[in-house]
Amino acid sequence: MELKPSDLAPNYRAILETCEPYLVSYPGNYGALDLEPFGLRIKRERLYTATTLASRGVVDGLHVLDAATFGGQEMLMPRWVLFDCGEFPGIVFGFGKRARDLSPRLRDRYRVGPPASDDAFVPLSMWVAIRCAEEGAWFGHNLSSANVMGEPHDALPGLATITKVFGVKLARSSKQYGATQWKSGSLALHLKLGEMHVLSAYTPAHTHAETLAYRVDVDDVRLVQSLQPGYAPAATQGERVLAADDVEGMHALHDALERGERWTVIRAEARGPQAQLVHLVRG
Fold first, then answer.
1. DSSP-assigned letters across all residues of the chain
2. Which of 73, 152, 198, 203 shows the greatest Cβ crowding within 10 Å of its Cβ?
3. Where are the chain's structural domains?
């Protein structure tokens, strides 16, 4: 299926018209991937291999993104983690621009100074995904966007969403596993891929125990619709509504899961910064 810029809402159209897609992965993985997701071709010069020195600038940019997004959450990735988990066995997919097309402030954040580095490619978003042994399954490890850096001149609304939608398509993923915090604003984004089945509601194995593990059964129709003009998530009321700071409620839901009940997230209702209500239904 091909998606043209004219098929998309204006904010997503602007991203495709002003940014380039890129991929970091070991070339041995290419045969399992769709290097033209939705018809969007990744240029040869934007296919990076982290085992080559030529990729160093892009990899440095990925760590700038990671620090801006997760540095304050005790989840900053050491360089070896990104290499071992994403850049070599999995994928790092996103969109970027040449340094000359960025504001001086954002260039400074990425430490790409003019004028010698005007042609340097700067990754502005990334979705890191790890292949699972299960056929068609990937674990979404990290989703980041330069919009978190708060530079209005460089803002690209919807950058994280379009990165994940095209990344899932590139991975040929039919199931996307992940882990995120109940308070995370990315919950609503993940729901654009398909139904989100809760695997754990309280996860002490994670740095942040108030984390849910989930599986999304990828729905191509929903992927496309989420990028089109007029898209709005359903406002369905859940059978169960969990506040993002309700640790007791997380325990109760987790106990229900361990008893064999099945629950699916259908909506995340924002109630201010890091505050939301999560609506769930059985099944």
1. ----GGGS-HHHHHHHHH-EEEEE--GGGGGGS-SSGGG-PPPGGGEE-TTSGGGHHHHHHHHHHHHHHHGGGT-PPPHHHHIIIIITTSEEEEEEEEGGGS-HHHHHHHT--TTTTTT-EEE-EEEEEEE-SSTTEEEEEEEEEGGGG--GGG--TTHHHHHHHHHHHHTT-SEEEEEEETT-THHHHHTTSEEEEEEESS-TTSSSSSEEEEEEEE-HHHHHHTTSTT-----PPPSEEEETT-HHHHHHHHHHHHTT--EEEEEEEE-STT-EEEEEEE-
2. 198
3. 5-173
Q: Which two tokens stand for residue 214?
A: 């989930």
In the CATH hierarchy, which fold is given to the domain comprising 5-173? Answer: Aminopeptidase (3.40.630)
Ramachandran area for residue 279 (φ above 0: left; ψ -120 to 50: alpha; else beta): beta
pLDDT digits (tens, 9 = 90+) for 70-118: 765 556 788 999 999 999 999 999 999 999 999 999 999 999 987 778 9
Give the pLDDT score at 136: 96
Summarised one tens digit per residue, pLDDT across range 18-64 is 999 999 999 999 999 999 999 999 999 999 999 999 999 999 999 99
pLDDT of residue 144: 93
Neighbours of 6 (CB within 10 A): 6
**Residue bearing tokens 């506040």:** 243
- Averaged pLDDT for residues 231-237: 82
- Rounded distance between C-alpha atoms, residue 270 and residue 183, angstroms: 9
Structure tokens at 151: 């530079």
Stated pTM of the model:
0.93
